């Protein structure tokens, strides 16, 4: 049977499945896991930070929808930039996104470590870091996979815990201040807090949305992808944004100001403040499960991406394309990801999430620019919409993302800049001074 025939046989996903898939990537409980860092960074305007991040993501989600309707293949930003602009720029965008993949498992391990250390302060934090890395790396090398139903059960559990947490925060405010206490603009805006602080928080808050665009990688397995994928991407961003804004609003009301002793584990203290010992235990269990499963899936995805890059000659084949003979997993790639994760011993949650968002904002900006370039080149495929939908809306999305990119701390901008310079240098060597196109990753095949 032809490759085309096989692809048609595998088109089994509908809108509901794609939205669940996207929400599973978002991990809704993350809104509480990073609350302390955002509370400090935004000077007590966490809900405003999430609102800014949501607006940026919604405009970008629209642009993703436009691009996937024209190019219903896997690869996301890498593929779109390669097709609309050129292969070299596409490589650099993919290289920037690779920074996300390297640091995503580390952030999961850091968050899990922070909360376990808060619950068990007598255990040195480095033990938890090493335990997370060793366990997830070992499981991934063994090739253990979680079924979709298990993933959805874990997501449902997270949503229930988030809903319970938000309800407890609302109850706490109601008892302390009455029903009027639930209506306030201060979680969004405070006269003494500069907009730059709220946007700096938004630059970190965008971390919660990473993965909303992963829906686009399922294009070749979806019924009517040109219609279904854009709707799913926008719904995932909208539903996720609503959860994050509402939950952070109620949490901020329950804890106005920035008074946490340990910002990395602030939600642990907040859970004890608004709930009881039983809820604190449930919350701790939920976040450990969430961070373990997130670290597991992030490391597996990173290892798979590095293997694909090695197999296709983008990275040295001798190391990156090697497969474990017994378990048939990309052992070298997984071990490298685990080794990079050791940086968690020297970094904090804020720095590592900022590094991730450097790659994300770069990719998001270019996806918006791809829509504008497509319209200007006249290659819209007859799709409806004029300058407003093809230029103005994506331009707003690009400005939002570039603004958030500029709001990252100097460490993230420095590391991101160095990473891009390394990518540019490697690309120059790989293409013999840009005289030939870089090797192409066959990401379309990876999605089948």
Secondary-structure blueprint:
Elements lengths: L2 H7 L5 H12 L3 H4 L1 H7 L4 H25 L5 H9 L2 H33 L5 H18 L5 H30 L17 H11 L19 H30 L11 H9 L2 H35 L5 H4 L10 H11 L7 H29 L9 H20 L3 H21 L12 H4 L2
Total helical elements:
19
- What would you call the shape? globular
CA-based gyration radius: 22 Å
Order of helices and strands: HHHHHHHHHHHHHHHHHHH
Helical residue percent band: over 70%
* Total beta-strand segments: 0
Rounded mean pLDDT score: 82
Percent of residues in β-strands: under 5%
Largest sheet, if any? none
Descriptive keywords:
448 residues, mainly alpha, 19 helices, 0% strand, globular, disordered N terminus
3D structure, described in words:
The chain is mostly helical and 448 residues long. Helices cover 71% and strands 0% of the residues. The protein is built from 19 helices and no strands. It has helices spanning 3-9, 15-26, 30-33, 35-41, 46-70, 76-84, 87-119, 125-142, 148-177, 195-205, 225-254, 266-274, 277-311, 317-320, 331-341, 349-377, 387-406, 410-430, 443-446. The longest helix is centred in the middle third of the chain and has 35 residues, at 277-311. The chain is globular, with a radius of gyration of 22 Å. The model is unreliable at 1-10 and 444-448 (pLDDT under 50).
